[in-house]
């Protein structure tokens, strides 16, 4: 009986093909999921400031440079703003709005939305462009 060297040797080489497959699958996954995430906002030039706005499921109130008011993407009259907001917030647990006003909008328009939120105990965040 011969108890010498065995013929089965373990390969010490590392095979990268399985690692590259995993990297490509992750890349495809993140590319697909990132295209599904879209913000529900208009194209506004926001003022610059430090900080960022969380993109949760809160309602967005936007004021463009022509002083048009929008709730999410729906254009509304300035006079109907409070009534429309209260109708939207009636069923919502999360009473919060994100105010998106262009930097050329007069302060009185921004303050008007802030007063509506304060009167109705609605939390409000002002959206800005990070520096």
From TrEMBL:
Q: Which domain of life is it from?
A: Bacteria
Q: Which UniProt keywords apply?
A: Cell membrane, Membrane, Protein transport, Transmembrane, Transmembrane helix, Transport
Give the UniProt record's GO annotations in the biological process aspect.
Answer: protein transport
One Pfam family matching this protein: ExbD
Answer whether the UniProt record assigns the keyword Repeat to this protein. no
Per UniProt, what is the membrane topology?
Single-pass membrane protein; Single-pass type II membrane protein
Any one GO MF annotation of this record: transmembrane transporter activity
Q: Which GO terms describe its cellular component?
A: plasma membrane
State its location(s): Cell membrane
What family does this belong to? Belongs to the ExbD/TolR family.
Protein name from the UniProt record:
Outer membrane transport energization protein ExbD
Q: Which organism is it from?
A: Flavobacterium cheniae
